[in-house]
Amino acid sequence: MKIYTKTGDKGQTGLIGARADKDAPRVEAYGTIDEVNSFIGKAMTELDAEKYADLLADLEAIQNELFDCGGDLADVRKEPNYKMTEQPVEVLESRIDDLMEEPPLLERFILPGGSPAAATLHIARTITRRAERQTVTLKKSGEEFPQVVQRYLNRLSDYLFAAARVVNSRAGVPDNEYIRSAKVFKNGGRAKKQD
C-alpha cells in the first residue's frame, strides 16, 4: 500500500469537502492538534503501566478525542458530521479536579520539567495552548467549526498541567518553582490553574 499521493506537491491538502493551502489557519490548527497527539503518545511510552494506569487510560481517550477535534476542524461540508460533544469536556473537568487533589499544594508558578514523562506532558500542554490560540484565530476569520473544540483544548491544557504534576508527585520528583514568582495560588492551586 502506498501512503503518498503526490496531490499535496503544490502546497495544498485535502479537507473533508474541499482543498486548502497547507498553511491555511484551519490546517495549521488541526496540524497542531496532531502535534499535541504525538507528544501525548510519547508521554505514554514514558509512564509505568501499573503506577499510572489511570493516566494512561485518560491519555488514550484523549488521543481519540484529539482525532475527533482534528476531523471536525477538517470538515468543511455544508452539512458536516461533527464528532465532538460537551461530554469529553466535562470528563476533563472532573479529572482535573481529582488530579489536583493529589500533588502537594501549589503556591507559585512552576517550571516545566521534572521526570521525563512530566516534561513531555508539559510540552504537550504548551502545544495545546498554541492549538487553542489557532482556533481563536480561525473563529475571528469567520470560519465555521464546532466551538466545543476550542473549549476542549482549553480544558486539555489544564488537564495536562495537572497530569504532569501528578506524574512528578508519584515519581517522587518535586516540581521546580519559578524562583521569582510571587505566591499566586491562594488556595494551593486546588481550583486555580497555571495560565
From TrEMBL:
<feature type="domain" description="Cobalamin adenosyltransferase-like">
    <location>
        <begin position="3"/>
        <end position="167"/>
    </location>
</feature>
<comment type="subunit">
    <text>Homotrimer.</text>
</comment>
<dbReference type="Pfam" id="PF01923">
    <property type="entry name" value="Cob_adeno_trans"/>
</dbReference>
<comment type="similarity">
    <text>Belongs to the Cob(I)alamin adenosyltransferase family.</text>
</comment>
<dbReference type="GO" id="GO:0008817">
    <property type="term" value="F:corrinoid adenosyltransferase activity"/>
</dbReference>
<keyword id="KW-0169">Cobalamin biosynthesis</keyword>
<dbReference type="InterPro" id="IPR029499">
    <property type="entry name" value="PduO-typ"/>
</dbReference>
<dbReference type="GO" id="GO:0009236">
    <property type="term" value="P:cobalamin biosynthetic process"/>
</dbReference>
<dbReference type="GO" id="GO:0005524">
    <property type="term" value="F:ATP binding"/>
</dbReference>
<comment type="pathway">
    <text>Cofactor biosynthesis; adenosylcobalamin biosynthesis; adenosylcobalamin from cob(II)yrinate a,c-diamide: step 2/7.</text>
</comment>
<keyword id="KW-0808">Transferase</keyword>
<dbReference type="InterPro" id="IPR036451">
    <property type="entry name" value="CblAdoTrfase-like_sf"/>
</dbReference>
<protein>
    <recommendedName>
        <fullName>Corrinoid adenosyltransferase</fullName>
        <ecNumber>2.5.1.17</ecNumber>
    </recommendedName>
</protein>
<dbReference type="InterPro" id="IPR016030">
    <property type="entry name" value="CblAdoTrfase-like"/>
</dbReference>
<keyword id="KW-0547">Nucleotide-binding</keyword>
<keyword id="KW-0067">ATP-binding</keyword>
